[in-house]
């Protein structure tokens, strides 16, 4: 039974609609129900199937996964050509169908809010008409860190080191794209002065190329600085973490560097315990989630009261 949730929304050259499908089966001893979200997308411009999946299907699937905190599989995908003089009705072709990944038994008569959800459509100010354009803009701007954040959601089973490494890539990429290059007048002046000397050939040709390559990224923040900045933006939502784990950013940076560069004997603050490494990954993932939600929400200040009592976040405080 389809229930139209929102009128079709025009976003650029595409039109997006949202429908909730309810399928109920009632037996002599129990009742089963299944909810499916169905998006309809119409494009004014021709698209290949691969382009459609990446530009239309993936952002919407990512939105559901981000908002609910669980993998939202695409179970069915159909495409059609628009009606024409020769074919007055749309001709639908099924290009993907897969069964559900698993069944969850609901004992009560109500449909509970997913406990992992960051927010529901009813909680988002302005609803569907405001959420979809803002999410599509955010997805285009930050698609790489969003991909790295959700990678662990789409691949639910993971060992601690891979989970940790993906979280490091997500938070580093998020800072790089969302924060930009922080201004540091003294450092920039020093850099320009050295580069001017190089252009004047004050350094021999043999050493000039080596120096330029070393100085190329010298103004970029370190991973430790990036992590500190993203966590600081989360404010009170992650303040209990930094209070309980004051060297968090340094420990994560040392651990990632040891993994990426295959360092030997431990001479730093790297994390050895897999359980602690998993916990650090969860902290970083929460930092990126909060940062994305602050940019997605019309008023970023409303994110803190929205998540303050989230049971997964408060549980994280106790484990740190």
Cα radius of gyration in angstroms: 24 Å
Q: What is the end-to-end distance?
A: 45 Å
Would you report the number of β strands? 5
Helix content: 40-55%
Briefly note the structural class of the backbone: alpha+beta
Overall structural domain count: 3
Low-pLDDT residue spans: 99-112
How do the helices and strands follow one another from N- to C-terminus?
EEEHEEHHHHHHHHHHH
How much of the sequence lies in strands comes to 15-25%
Strand order of the largest sheet: 1-2-3
Indicate the overall shape: globular
Question: Can you put this structure into words, describing what you see?
Answer:
This protein is of the alpha+beta class and 320 residues long. It folds into 3 domains: 2-116, no CATH class; 151-182 and 222-319, no CATH class; 183-220. The chain is 50% helix and 15% strand. The strands form 2 sheets. It has a 3-stranded antiparallel beta sheet with strand order 1-2-3. Helix 3 runs antiparallel to helix 4 (160-178), helix 4 (160-178) packs across helix 7 and helix 4 packs parallel to helix 10. The chain is globular.
Write the topology of this structure:
Elements: E1 2-11, E2 14-26, E3 31-43, H1 49-68, E4 76-81, E5 91-97, H2 127-141, H3 143-154, H4 160-178, H5 185-199, H6 205-215, H7 223-233, H8 239-244, H9 248-261, H10 274-296, H11 303-307, H12 311-319
Antiparallel strand pairs: 1-2, 2-3, 4-5
């Amino acid at each position: 039974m389809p229930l139209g949730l929102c009128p079709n929304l025009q976003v650029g050259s595409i039109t997006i609609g949202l429908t909730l499908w309810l399928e109920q089966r009632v037996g002599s001893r129990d009742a089963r129900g299944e909810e499916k979200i169905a998006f309809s997308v119409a494009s004014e411009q021709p698209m290949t199937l691969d382009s459609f999946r990446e530009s239309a299907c993936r952002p919407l699937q990512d939105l559901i996964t981000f908002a609910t905190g669980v993998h939202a599989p695409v179970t069915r995908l159909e495409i059609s050509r628009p009606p024409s003089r020769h074919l007055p009705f749309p001709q639908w072709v099924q290009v993907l169908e897969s069964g559900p990944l698993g069944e969850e038994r609901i004992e009560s008569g109500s449909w509970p809010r997913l406990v992992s959800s960051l927010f529901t459509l009813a909680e988002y100010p302005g609803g569907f008409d405001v959420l979809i354009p803002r999410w599509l803009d955010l997805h285009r701007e930050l698609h790489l860190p969003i991909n790295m954040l959700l990678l662990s959601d789409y691949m639910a089973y993971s060992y601690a080191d891979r989970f940790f490494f993906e979280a490091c890539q997500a938070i580093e990429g998020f800072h790089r794209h969302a924060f930009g290059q922080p201004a540091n007048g003294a450092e920039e002046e020093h850099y320009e002065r050295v580069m001017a000397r190089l252009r004047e050939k004050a350094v021999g040709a043999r050493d000039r190329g080596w120096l330029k390559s070393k100085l190329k990224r010298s103004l970029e923040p370190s991973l430790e600085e990036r992590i500190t900045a993203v966590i600081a933006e989360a404010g009170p939502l992650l303040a209990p973490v930094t209070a309980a784990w004051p060297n968090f950013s340094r420990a994560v940076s040392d651990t990632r560097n040891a993994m990426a560069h295959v360092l030997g004997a431990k001479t730093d603050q790297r994390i050895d315990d897999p359980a602690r490494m998993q916990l650090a990954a969860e902290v970083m993932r929460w930092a990126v989630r909060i940062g994305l939600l602050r940019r997605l929400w019309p008023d970023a200040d409303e994110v803190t009261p929205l998540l303050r009592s989230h049971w997964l976040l408060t549980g994280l405080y106790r484990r740190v």
